[in-house]
Design goal:
Elements (H helix, E strand, L loop, with lengths): L2 E5 L6 H13 L3 E6 L5 E3 L5 E3 L2 E2 L10 E4 L4 H5 L3 H12 L4 E4 L4 H6 L6 E2 L3 H9 L3 E2 L4 E4 L4 E4 L5 H12 L2
Parallel strand pairs: 1-2, 1-6, 2-5, 6-7, 7-11, 8-9
Antiparallel strand pairs: 3-4, 10-11
Helix pairs in contact: 1-6
């Protein structure tokens, strides 16, 4: 069983948090949703709600086996907060699994190491990642084995994305 930290705030894309979380939990893993403070209710773009398990100041790399970053407007809000950028960069540099979809990879631009990554994202974010030096592919699921990074483009990719992230944790 792995313990996954999901970083999200209001206006996340509902299915991009709900679906991977359900798939991971069905496989026996634990998913902690983390935002600025514990016990806060965050709301997705379409009304899904989740209560946060802990605040970002109490979330440490050593407490988790993997990181999940859903899309929507949430990643754009989180990337201006150095705490989320720092944690994301720590996961990438520690070669712990990172799972992200749609707009989630926006956080990588702030890490300063986008030029080391191979990934995909939502179409408009792909260009930003290319300008930041990333190797961007327009595929359903892109796996960067060097960084244990699994990425997908849109909610329609969720079945393949979910299968890939569950398989990665079961290795």
């Amino acid at each position: 069983m792995a313990k996954i930290i999901a970083i999200a705030t209001d206006d996340f894309e509902d299915s991009e948090l709900t679906s991977p979380k359900e798939a991971l939990e069905a496989a026996g893993h634990v998913v902690d949703i983390v935002e600025n403070e514990a016990g806060k209710t965050i709301t997705g773009k379409h009304g899904a709600t989740f209560e946060t398990v802990k605040g970002i100041d109490n979330a440490k790399l050593s407490d988790y086996d993997a990181l999940l970053i859903p899309g929507g407007f949430s990643p754009d809000k989180l990337r201006v907060d150095e705490r989320y950028v720092k944690l994301t960069k720590e996961f990438l540099e520690a070669n712990k699994p990172v799972f992200t979809i749609c707009h989630g990879p926006q956080l990588f631009i702030q890490t300063g190491i986008s030029d080391q990554l191979t990934l995909t994202a939502y179409q408009s974010v792909q260009a930003d990642l290319k300008y930041a030096g990333a190797n961007v592919k327009d595929e359903e699921v892109v796996i960067d084995d060097k960084h244990q990074l699994i990425s997908s483009r849109t909610p329609k990719d969720l079945p393949a994305f979910n299968a890939a992230i569950v398989e990665a944790l079961n290795k």
